[in-house]
TrEMBL record:
The lineage of its organism: Eukaryota, Discoba, Euglenozoa, Kinetoplastea, Metakinetoplastina. This is Calcium motive P-type ATPase TBCA2. One of its GO terms (cellular component) is plasma membrane. It comes from the Eukaryota. Its main location: membrane.
Length: 340
């Protein structure tokens, strides 16, 4: 399992696109530094900040005794350990770093993302949590004008597939043509190629009858690249295992490009060696198509032997991988954080 095992599980937003406009975060590793989204339209920024603030289950609390620099509000807060996860934490952190310098966005008792949550939840609010099957999270909230909005955050490829419009650099909603879809897909692959987890953000309106208009699903709003640095000891540890005759494989919920980039950094994946990387769905379908037929199983084994990376994997896919390796006669050990 990758997150928290191969990596430090310390996530932060480092780059992305908002309304098709590129941004990069300077001093990404310093959570107390501010972020300037220069050139991003105010409407796009407002929509994004609201959607991100609502779409996170992580919560912060003041440090005992209000410890921290008087001039630095962000340093006086810490994450509650019983709420959310590290990816979730990167999202409200990003909101706070963007809005902390905006007058009226916060006070001594509330960070910007907390104030946004409280203000909007008071008008009516529902949340549909992220699951490994859905790959996205949804917040439904009534706006100040009475319009009910859906804000979606999740795996970039999953969220993009739910959209038929996008927000342009000028802040206008435009049709999501095949050409634009290819452009966004290229953006996703580029950011994933930097070993970033890619998060898609979208929004949509709900009709007065409570239904989502079929012809207007969602509007693609933003792509965020979240980075989780490798643990410094990982490369040597992988090399030592391989030197002892142990085959190291990586499973992750990240998309294929991100998974390949990270596994290459670890020394787990090497395309020149003939290694393979598959999604959990592709691996699952391959097993289901071949299992029980001896002739077909002989086609599965060479693929299994070369598969070093499983991306977009669910808990069942990991279990299936272990089962197939054991049927192959391998002795299997699994490491992870215990969640999946």
């Amino acid at each position: 399992d990758k997150t928290g095992t191969l990596t430090q599980n310390r996530m932060t937003v480092v780059q992305g696109y908002i309304g098709m406009r590129r941004f990069r975060v300077t001093n990404a590793g310093d959570p107390s530094s501010t972020v300037n989204l220069e050139g991003v339209s105010s409407d796009a920024q407002s929509l994004l900040m609201l959607g991100l603030a609502l779409n996170s289950s992580s919560e912060k609390e003041l440090l005992p005794g209000n410890v921290g620099a008087e001039s630095d509000l962000l340093s006086r807060w810490t994450w509650r350990t019983d709420k959310g996860n590290k990816t979730d934490q990167a999202i409200p952190d990003f909101v706070d770093r963007v809005l902390i310098s905006v007058p009226g966005s916060c006070n001594d008792k509330e960070l910007p993302h907390q104030k946004l949550r409280m203000t909007n939840r008071s008008r009516g609010f529902a949340i549909f949590p992220f699951t490994s099957e859905r790959k996205f999270m949804t917040a439904v909230v009534a706006g100040a004008d009475g319009v009910v909005m859906q804000h979606v955050k999740g795996g970039s490829d999953r969220v993009l597939g739910m959209c038929n419009r996008y927000l342009s650099s000028e802040g206008r909603e435009e049709p999501l043509t095949e050409e634009v879809t290819e452009m966004i897909t290229a953006q996703i692959r580029s950011i994933a190629g930097d070993a970033n987890r890619t998060i898609g953000v979208a929004y949509g309106r709900i009709g007065t009858d409570g239904a989502v208009p079929e012809e207007e699903p969602f509007v693609w709003l933003a792509l965020l690249g979240i980075q989780d640095p490798l643990r410094p000891e990982v490369v040597d540890a992988v090399r030592m295992c391989q030197g002892a005759g142990v085959t190291v494989r990586m499973c992750t919920g990240d998309n294929l490009d991100t998974a390949v980039a990270i596994s290459r950094q670890c020394g787990i994946y090497n395309r020149l060696r003939g290694d393979l990387a598959l999604t959990g769905k592709d691996f699952r379908n391959l097993v289901y198509d071949t299992y029980g037929d001896e002739a077909n199983m002989e086609k599965l084994w060479p693929v299994l032997d070369r598969m070093m990376v499983m991306a977009r994997s669910q808990p069942l896919d990991k279990q299936l991988l272990v089962l197939m390796l054991m049927l192959r006669g391998e002795v299997v050990a699994v490491t992870g954080d215990g969640v999946n």
